[in-house]
Amino acid sequence: MSSTQKDQHGARSQRSQEADKPHRRKGEKKHTCDECGKAFTVRASLKQHQVIHTGERPFSCDLCGKYFSRKGSLKKHQLIHSGVKAYSCDQCGRAFTHSSHLQKHLVTHSGIKPYSCDECGKGFTVRASLKRHQVIHTGERPFSCDLCGKSFSLKGSLKQHQLIHSGVKAYSCDQCGRAFTRSSSSQKHLVTHSGIKPYSCDICGKTFSRRGSRNTHLRIHTRHDVYCCEQCGKYFTTDAHLQQHMFTHTEERPYQCDLCEKTFKAPHDLRRHQQIHTRKRLYKCSYCEKQSDTDGSSSQPCHHCGGGKDFHCDC
């Protein structure tokens, strides 16, 4: 057999051997995780994935101490401290450090609310907002701070709180240099430089850039402390009114009808319901705003104020 024939025979044999081997298609996921069975096309991706099961976070941020399982995740996180926000919204101008954050934000402009609460049906544009809302119904606060004992409903809220104890203030104001532990606190502070004052006093109309400043101001009118709801920001002049209001954020219904045992969150809801049993209609007086079973007309003046006139009892 000539050398040329030998070469041809060898090439055919090699092709035959290759054909006998199991054929692996391009993009086939041949690297499988022993823990969960998830497969990857390259071994490096498998190794990156496996840290999910081990819990290892070897990469830490020099500025805030936060740990990450991947070097890439650390680099993305560090953009927060750098202040670089390369992704901006075309509709409102808000800028973000990550493209994924911008994509999530764009949903808020679409009006689409794909995430709804099973308890009350309220809709949300992002899943994180739904999770924050759901603790209103459960009232659970399973995450507590080891240093001060304060408890939180979300692990992320606990981590943000712990920065207060660490003393790290990674977010600084470009205009006055004041530093903050949280990005949200920094954003709230920036409003003071913008001149925008979204919080107004219902009594005198004075406006404020921060809710806390408005609540402090209210003491001038009320002569005592103002009680503010942490859930929605609504304020009250007495702690009793605040506690009564808090039922609107929970599933508790402490006010029960004696006739049908139906329960309600607020006393005025119970009174309105009881009209069904008494067959009496309650009217709100245009002068004193109290409810009565009279319509406040001249023939049926309000029992409380007399319909705005000097009211004297004939008896």
Short description:
By secondary structure, the chain is α+β, with helices and mostly antiparallel strands.
Describe it.
With 315 residues, this protein is α+β, with helices and mostly antiparallel strands. It has a domain at 197-249: Double Stranded RNA Binding Domain (2-Layer Sandwich). Helix content is 39%, strand content 13%. The chain has ten helices and 20 strands. Strands 1-2 form a two-stranded antiparallel ribbon. It has a two-stranded antiparallel sheet with strand order 3-4.
Proportion in β-strands? 5-15%
**Which stretches are poorly predicted, pLDDT < 50 over at least 5 residues?**
308-315
What average pLDDT do the residues reach?
Answer: 74
Structural class, from secondary structure content? Answer: alpha+beta
Q: Trace the largest sheet across and list its strands.
A: 1-2
Shape: globular
CATH first level of the domain at 197-249: Alpha Beta
Terminal CA distance reads: 137 Å
**Describe the biggest sheet?**
2 strands, antiparallel
InterPro entries: Krueppel_C2H2_ZnFinger, Znf_C2H2_sf, Znf_C2H2_type
Keywords: DNA-binding, Metal-binding, Nucleus, Repeat, Transcription, Transcription regulation, Zinc, Zinc-finger
Region (Disordered): 1-32
Family: Belongs to the krueppel C2H2-type zinc-finger protein family.
